[in-house]
Amino acid sequence: MSKWNEWAEICKKKALETRIEYGISPYSPIEVFKLLKEADINVIKEPIDSHISGFFLKRGHSELVFINTKRSIGHQNFTAAHEYYHIKFDVDISGRVCFVGRFDVREPNEFKADLFASYLLAPDEAINFHLYRRGIQRLDDSTITLKDVIDLEQIFGISHTAMLVRLQQMGLSSEKAAVFKPNVIKNARSLGYNVSLYQESNDYAVISKYAEKAKIAFDKGLISSGKYEELLLEAGLIDILYSENEHEEGDLI
Fold it and tell me: pTM to 2 decimals?
């Protein structure tokens, strides 16, 4: 078995186990940000003028994922799944900036995180199920159309490029995939699909069980602004984001 196939099998298994852990059917789309919240992973979403997809940080029991909302919504979803892999399975890495979806075998940790994200967001079983519903018995170059590809990426909430890579993993040729690549927004719109999946959202959000509870208490006047900041500090939501001196060599900052 090649190293690529070995990694693929491991990541596919981890993705399935993650779905089972959170009670998510292998046939269903996944709300990845809801999963991160259930996993007690703090998420900050913010637009930054950079090509980075996001980053993750781990400090003690505190875990943080940052998502660049200057990237498309489909890319953001993939980034969230990618960063989940780093936090849960890359135990020796405390933080890293990520450029996701490159599937670069020269960077094993990033490659495996991309594989995991692919399998978590769009499992083989789910893809086959939805293709079957469209009358496609097996995935090959002669049966699948651009409309099928766009329909699938809309169901699973991932970018056009990520969906094509996923289908290539299942047997679609690179030549056929290349035919489907140009002008996805134009093609999706002409087929009647909402194109927001392919566009940046530029939104600001904090997704966190802890932060949510603290914010509710602050908004209700149950705690002061000083106490609110103290709670966030204790949870690591301020400290791990703005710390300048605790990063290991080769890590984020």
Answer: 0.84
